[in-house]
Amino acid sequence: MTTVRSAPRGAQAASPTASEAIPKRRKASAGQRVRGSLRLVALVGIALVFISPLVFMLMTSFKTRADATSVPPSWIPEEWTLQAYQTILGSASTPVFTWFLNSVTAAVANSVLVVITASLAAYPLARMQFRGKNLVFGAIIATLLVPPVILVIPNYLIVSELGWLNSLVAVIVPTAAGAFGVFLMRQFFLSIPVELEEAARLDGANRLRTFVSVVLPLAKPALATLGLLALLTNWNDFLWPVYVLFSPDVQTLPAGLSTLQSANAVRYDLLMAGAVIASAPVVLLFVALQRFIVEGVSQSGIKG
Amino acid sequence: MSQTTSPSGAGALATASAPARRLRDHGRATPWLFLAPYLLLFTGFVVIPVVLGLWMSLHQWDYTLPLKPFVGLDNYVDLFTPGSTTSGIFWQAMQATAIFTVASVPFLLVIPLLVALLMNAKFPGRNFFRAVYFAPYVLGVAVVAVLWRYLLDNNIGLVNYYLGVLGLPDDTAWLTSTPAAWVALVGVTVWWTLGFNAIIYLAALQDIPAELYEAARMDGAGRWQQFRNVTLPGLRPILTFVTINTLIASANMFGQSYLMTQGGPGRETRTAIYQIAETGLRNFQMGDAAAMSYILTLFLIGLSVAVFWLFRERKGARK
User: Fold this and answer.
1) What is the DSSP string of B258-299?
2) Residues B34, A120 contacting (CB under 8 angstroms)
3) Mean pLDDT split into 10-residue runs, chain A, 304 residues
4) N or C: which end of chain B has fewer CB within 10 A?
5) From the candidates A33, A149, A252, which should be mutated to test the interface with B, based on the most B CB atoms within 10 A?
6) pLDDT attached to residue B18
7) What ipTM is given for this predicted complex?
8) B157, B203, B259 ranked by CB distance to A258: nearest
9) How far is CA A35 from the centre of its chain?
10) Which DSSP category does B70 fall into?
11) Closest chain A residue to B41 measured between Cα atoms?
């Protein structure tokens, strides 16, 4: 993320709100201090609104069935228990552990597929001259404007014709066809100095060799960002898996959660345990790699 | 950067630098070999579906029946004929989508901007707050909807409990009555996705040169004037993106309604995407569903064009 460039020290110019007239510097900084504490109060207040539902979710997953529905609601479990987790993990009709493995498999496979195909495709679009290049690139970019909804019905038919219905392949392969990855990788390749590749070429490396041993290592940050975004998207995808995966043993976690909800309408202890299992990996990933994710998102915004 | 080695005036440069020519030297098939894996996916799951969808929409295409007779524009005509089997449910769903979009987009444009302005200064813990606000967005709609169904439960939910503590009505049926269900769907969506727009705004705010604010202050501009004359114009390009992105995301709402209200009460919160999925993938009337998705797509494209036009118009007027 870009930080504020060349802001004069003390001017706090980054903030449009911190803006008393310049000659009254001393007075202004007192005002700034007040405003700073007001800002902190607001920031903490909003943060509580964001975090407390998640804390309540986590707490409930450790409650007993009765405790989860007690009035008034309690934040701390009366009696800490792993009952909810044991119940859903051991149930044959809602095999949460299988869903978890399915989600991991699908998300990792999809992410790898996206990273490989998108970076391979982006390279000639960034670095080679060939007939049809503009047409191909134009077609790929144009689909960024196509709302995904028109693909749902025909893709269901295609997936069914390929015999992929009710199999994980259906949530791994078709969703890897998105244009965003190609676009992101192409932009990144354009920013790499071409001289590095020339050196490898002069040493006799062919295009593929140059790509694999020179370009890809340089592109690691972009590859990581793309892989991570693909992983998160696939992990959380909902509409498509709900309709293409229908046996309990092939579902992914989001689709499974909806099954869990209809099977246990008021068992909130179970639902919250399921929700914790579905969110724990992405939350941990997010905490560890927050910078990459946030930067990837803000960059995708700017590029759009 | 790469332009220096791959210009259209190749003749002049080819003699100028040997490396440049070597770099251009590649077999005719090379670029296509690189592109092949992606193009296979792209053709199979983007290009063909776009055409196939149109084809299906011109047929009475029931997935479970062997015959798919050609019916021309009948599926479309039905959608526009009051009293047909599909028009009622489709336009009710379109209306639900419109209600949700109109109700949620202003909040999703304004609140994240306020949050971004709040965060747009250097202070300790800024990265922490940035992460906290963005966190719900990484959760996915299934978790978010299941969680809020619990919090919004009429009888045992946290929301009604705290409303009662504050002395407000504490028996609102958030998920089974309107307009409360709309408030719930919009509120949850704002909570869930606020961070996304806030992060994009924040990145854009930080790209506005500090010198502009100083110059404005020199000219005696107050805080509001600085916001109007420096911040807003600086944000204009990103505002177009954020507005279109938010409109399209709202118009594609599905999971919240599917999981929180099940489209109810009645069909009131069943959105267009929900209806298309149910018609095509539950009832297998895929011809009808394909026609619906093309109509929705036309609306969405029209909307995007309108937003582009709107933002460009104002830009011109200012100059």
Assistant:
1) IIIITT-STTTT--HHHHHHIIIIIS-BHHHHHHHHHHHHHH
2) yes
3) 34 41 52 80 90 95 92 90 92 90 97 97 94 94 88 96 96 95 93 88 86 92 91 94 94 93 84 95 88 75 48
4) C
5) A149
6) 46
7) 0.86
8) B259
9) 34
10) B
11) A177
Amino acid, res. B161 = Y
Q: What are residue B121's phi and psi, to 5 degrees?
A: -155, 160
Q: What is the pTM of this model?
A: 0.86
Q: For the CA atoms of chain A, what is the radius of gyration?
A: 25
Binding-face residues of B in 280-299 toward A, CB within 8 A: 280-282, 286, 289-290, 293-294, 296-297
B312 touches chain A (CB under 8 A): no
- 3-state secondary structure (DSSP) of residue B59: strand
Count other Cβ atoms within 10 Å, centred on residue B51: 10
Closest CA to A147 of B306, B139, B80, B245: B245
- Domain B88-310 has what CATH class? mainly alpha
Q: At what angle do helices B141-151 and B158-165 cross, to 10 degrees?
A: 40
Helix then strand then coil, in percent of chain B rounded to 5, is 75, 0, 25
* Residue type present at position B302: G
A172's tokens: 């791994």
Nearest CA-CA partner of B281 in B56, B101, B72 = B56
Partner residue opposite B143 with nearest CB, options A207, A275, A290: A275
Question: Which tokens sit at A214?
Answer: 């020179």
pLDDT tier at B90, thresholds 50, 70, 90: very high
Contacts of A233 (CB under 8 A, 6+ apart): A175
Contact B173, B179 (CB under 8 A): no
Beta bridge partners of B90: none
Phi–psi pair at B23, nearest 5 degrees: -65, -35
Is the distance from CB of B171 to CB of A296 less than 8 angstroms?
no
Q: B234: distance to nearest CA of chain A, Å? A: 12
**Coil/strand/helix, residue B62:** strand
pLDDT in tens, B290-319: 999 999 999 999 998 998 888 875 544 544
Interface check B150 vs A, CB under 8 A: yes
The gap from C-alpha A293 to its chain's centroid, in whole angstroms, comes to 7
Angle between helices B286-318 and B232-251 (to 10 degrees): 170
pLDDT at B25: 61
Q: How confident is the model over B130-154, as pLDDT tens digits?
A: 888 888 999 999 999 999 999 999 8
B54 contact partners, CB below 8 Å, separation of at least 6: B290, B294
Residue B246: name the closest of B124, B112, B127 by CA.
B112
Alpha-carbon gap: B248 to the closest alpha carbon of chain A (Å): 8
Tokens of residue B53, six digits: 């969808």
- Tell me which chain B residues have a C-beta less than 8 angstroms from the C-beta of A69: 156
pLDDT tens figures, B253-295 = 999 999 999 998 989 999 999 999 999 999 999 999 999 999 9
CA distance B319 to chain A (A): 23
**Inter-chain contact A17–B276, Cβ cutoff 8 Å?**
no
Query: Counting Cβ atoms within 10 Å, is residue B294 exposed (0-12), middle (13-18) or buried (19+)?
Result: buried
Residue of chain A whose Cα is closest to the Cα of B38: A117
Query: Does B42 sit within 8 Å of A177, measured CB to CB?
Result: yes
Cβ-contact B86, B79 below 8 angstroms: yes
